[in-house]
Amino acid sequence: MEKLFQQIEEHASLYQHWLLSMCNQPSISAQNIGMQEMKELVIQLLEDLGADVEEVVTAGYPIIYGQIDNGSKRTLTFYNHYDVQPPDPLAEWMSDPFKARVENGQIFARGVADNKGNIAARIAAVHAYQKVHGDLPVNVKFIIEGEEEVGSPNLKKFALENPEKLKTDAMIWEGGMRNVHDKRPHISFGVKGICFVELRVRGAAFDLHSSEGAVVENPAWRLVWALSTLKNKHEKILIDGFYDHILELTEKEKAFFQTMDYDEEHTKTHYQIDNFLTGVTGLELKERLTAAPTCTICGLEAGDTGQGAKTVLPSRAKVKIDFRIVPGQTPKMVIDLLRKHLDQHGFRDIEIEQLAGLLPFNSDSENPFVDTVINSMKEVYEEPPIIMRNLAGSSPMEKLLANTEIPAAQIGVANTGSNFHGPNENIYVDDFIKGIKATANVMRHFGDV
After folding, report:
1. What is the radius of gyration, based on Cα positions, of the chain?
2. Core-most of 146, 318, 337, 426, by most CB within 10 Å?
3. What are 357's strand-pairing partners?
4. How confident is the model at residue 402 (pLDDT cuts 50, 70, 90)?
5. CA 29, 407, 120: angle at the middle one, nearest 5?
6. Pair 331, 359: CB distance under 8 Å
7. Can you give the pLDDT at residue 88?
8. Where does this protein have coiled-coil stretches (predicted)?
9. Which architecture characterizes domain 201-246+293-357 according to CATH?
């Protein structure tokens, strides 16, 4: 292990050069800017490792598939994406988002945290291992898509049509992070799912003078009444059957909450709030954040909300709601229960449109890969890891891993102040090097399992 880590440190400038080259190449999938050039750059880096590389054609941008098969008993796959978010607002960047800037031990560039830093770290880990040991301890696969930032519309089809390419014993997914304040690394083994809907209520054929509100139904009020039936002031979701199929946490998963570092006072100060919902704190807060479903009003629209007074009776009202769902729940289940709930409460006229949906995904906490990742991280970082059964947010893990028993872990090179999708996106150089070591160490130990 010492020789491997020494190799990584001695070649840190080379690996940083690879990363800066990727960051200097725009690859904005939403605008088709630089995608071809970025794809070719990634392919070249993989081919330089000796990987067999294939462009898998999709209805959108190609998925890059790379494989290094040395006949090992186990295969480890890396999932990443080579596209990034647009850099707007440009005025808030301290430097050109596509000219990577290294300053005071940090790298600033669009995509450096999400997700090019992790691509470079995984390629570097393979390179370092090859230089020290020759053969890798496991077979390695790379699945690097170009559409994660636009919802991964072709990832599920790739999985269905390419079962051999997806065949693996475990997966390192996209990326993870490290605390800025105490440098503790994060490890997570899944994500919540999401069911995002829009509810619409229709009234008169067009907006009316508000005096008509004495005799003509107001869609805005009707929508408010419907929303009031979904959740009570104690934060319980009132849709019948909503909680019925949620899988119980195992004792090992409950133990993960003990490792979580959630600075409640700092968070409240940062958000400028007095308390968390229902006064929740401690372990219950951590469990609720990562393991409980939610029902969140994301936006409401009805009538006139412009400056000044406009006495109007709106003809339309709509709301966007997201449900974060957990293992045992599905987007379809939520839609069906929501439709039944609204009908039973006298709101058959309210339309429901599903705008997005992702299944939750969680690795089996008893799978040996889980402990392999945890122990590998402990050998690299001096600080104890924060271990999460799953993240509070969602990602397309299920599109690739649904109906498989493939365990997946999220570790990476970002930090809690990386400004994902925002101006001055950044990582620390030290976190990048540590991320290379962690990836190499996971490969080493997984080959021993």
Report:
1. 24
2. 146
3. 195
4. confident
5. 40
6. yes
7. 95
8. none
9. 2-Layer Sandwich (3.30)
Alpha helices in 65-215 (DSSP H): 117-133, 155-161, 163-166
Query: What is the DSSP-derived secondary structure letter of residue 91?
Result: G
**Which pLDDT tens digit goes with each residue over 24-65?**
999 999 999 999 999 999 999 999 999 999 999 999 999 999
Place 263 in a pLDDT band, splitting at 50, 70 and 90. Answer: confident
Q: Report the relative pairing of strands 186-188 and 139-145 from DSSP bridges.
A: unpaired
Residue 196's DSSP bridge partners are 322, 356
Q: Give the DSSP H/E element, type plus range, for residue 194.
A: strand 193-202
The domain over range 2-191+360-448 is classified in CATH as 3.40.630.10:
yes
Q: What is the pTM of this model?
A: 0.89
The domain locations on the chain are 2-191+360-448, 201-246+293-357
**312 DSSP β-pair partners:** 209
What tokens were used for 129?
A: 């291992």
The C-alpha atoms of residue 201 and residue 222 are separated, in whole angstroms, by 7
Using DSSP's 3-state secondary structure scheme, residue 315 falls into coil
Q: Which of 177, 64, 201 is nearest to 414 (CA)?
A: 177
